[in-house]
Amino acid sequence: MGRQFYSGDPLDVAPQLLNKLLVRRASAGTSRRAVRIVEVEAYRGEDDPASHAARGPTARNRTMYGNGGLLYVYFTYGMHWCANAVCGPRGSPRAILLRAGAPVSGLPALRAARPTVHRDRDLARGPACLCRALGVDGEDDGADLVRGDRRLVVVDDGVPPPVWPGRSGRVGIRRAADRPWRFWVPGDPHVSSIRTGGGRR
Questions:
Q1: What percentage of the chain carries pLDDT values higher than 70?
Q2: Domain ranges of the chain
Q3: Confidence of residue 55 (pLDDT cuts 50, 70, 90)
Q4: Of the four listed, 77, 97, 104, 177, which is most buried by Cβ atoms within 10 Å?
Q5: Cβ neighbour number for residue 40 with a 10 Å cutoff
């Protein structure tokens, strides 16, 4: 996906990310892994009390202020990595949380990354699970999804986004959770379970 794809408002870009592929390209000793993005959440920067950028720039959220198409990766609950696609113009800290993916290729490698998971549908079901399945961690913060400088890219393989995506309030947060900025592919079994409440994202 080109830089222009990420140039708009996250509320417009988020549903268009559905059914795109998030790909970890192969390197020496590793195989290609890919999941189809089936669930996302939009966060609107300094205008959004649930965003990491609600209080302005910090060392943690620096990537959110970069070009659209960067990957913002953060650590949460002292144990999990979560990944976001930055969108909008440079200096506008908006992003889309990648909440769930359906395995498409590299299934043995995805399983090896999640050895305690018994069902393939759960390999990348949830934002932290998606990161573990693809080996995304803090070293990938700032990765360019357009150039693929760290072997992570978003690809359009011809599967269109749903005409009528599922939509609800965001989950796992306390502030502005009622804003209907969560989108998903209706009927897809890889979409994460709906929960309310939890910590601030």
A1: 94
A2: 3-184
A3: confident
A4: 97
A5: 27
Q: Where are the beta strands (DSSP E) in the chain?
A: 21-24, 33-43, 70-76, 80-87, 94-105, 143-144, 152-155, 166-168, 182-184
Instruction: Quickly name the fold that domain 3-184 has.
Output: 3-methyladenine DNA Glycosylase; Chain A (3.10.300)
Instruction: Name all contacts of 112-116 with Cβ < 8 Å and 24+ positions apart.
Output: 113/33
Cβ within 8 Å of residue 187, ≥6 positions away: none
| CA 103/CA 116 separation, integer angstroms | 16
Q: Which two tokens stand for residue 190?
A: 């890889």
pTM here is: 0.91
How does DSSP classify residue 51? Answer: S
* CB neighbour list of residue 39: distance below 8 Å, 6 or more residues apart: 18, 99, 100, 182, 183, 184, 185, 188, 190, 191, 192
Distance CA 66, CA 24 (A): 21
Give the torsion sign (CA, 121, 70, 19, 176): positive
How would DSSP label each residue in 78-105?
Answer: TTEEEEEEEESSTT--EEEEEEEEEEEE
Residue 149: CA atoms inside 13 Å, Cβ hemisphere, count? 11
Dihedral (Cα; 39, 119, 116, 112), 10-degree rounding = -80
